[in-house]
Amino acid sequence: MTAYENSSTTLRGMTAPPLWVCVLLGLVMVFAGLFVLGDVTLFTVVSTIFIGWTAIFAGGFEIVHAFWTKGWGGFVWQLLLGALYLAFGIILLTQPVTSALILTYVLGLLLLISGIVRMLVGIGHWQQSGWIMVASGVFGVLAGLIILTGFPATGLWVLGLLLGIDLLSHGIGWLTYAWAPAARAAP
To answer: Is Membrane one of the keywords UniProt gives this record (predicted)?
Structure first.
């Protein structure tokens, strides 16, 4: 049995969203992406603040969860993890520009390292179309080097640029899905 049973049904019996929902979601995301790309520096700071609040809520929940599940073991570790989340979130909120720089630097390092690893894996599996993994790794290494060699200036715009591109591509993806022949078929 395939994942698609008919044109109006998607994965495992869930119905596809109506055409107008896909188009609306796509348009909202495209406009949001363009809005973010209009001032990537501002949205880099906004992203950092959002991550800070998320870390604070996660840390608070982790601490409360430690007390709820005190008998499960690992109480001290959960408290420590919650405290670290809280401290990380507070630092992001009180120093958003400096934090954006740090997050961007870490992102550059992660892209560089993951690119190198993907290249090595691709070379090791060359016979099984490993060249695709090597190409992906090259792009990761290049992106990491661009971020790291342009640092600290890149720290002020990279996160906002990536957010804008992600929103834009996500919106285009929804619009493409909405106008795909399978999505237009009547139920």
So the answer is: yes
Question: What b/e sequence results for 47-59 when a residue is b if at least 16 CB atoms lie within 10 Å of its CB, and e otherwise?
Answer: bbbebbeebbebb
Tell me the sheet residues that pair with 9. 15
Phi, psi of 9 (to 5 degrees): -120, 135
Could you report the per-residue pLDDT of 102-159, keeping only the tens digit for each?
A: 888 888 899 899 989 989 988 988 887 878 888 888 988 998 898 899 888 888 888 8
DSSP three-state, residue 106: helix
**Helix axes 96-124 and 130-149, enclosed angle (nearest 10):** 150
CA 125 to CA 122: how far, in whole Å?
5
* Alpha-carbon dihedral angle through residues 96, 100, 101, 103, given to the nearest 10 degrees: 130
**DSSP conformation letters of 86-98:** HHHHHHHHHSHHH
pLDDT tens figures, 75-115:
889 999 999 999 999 999 999 988 988 888 888 899 899 98
- Closest by CA to 104, choosing from 44, 62, 63, is 44
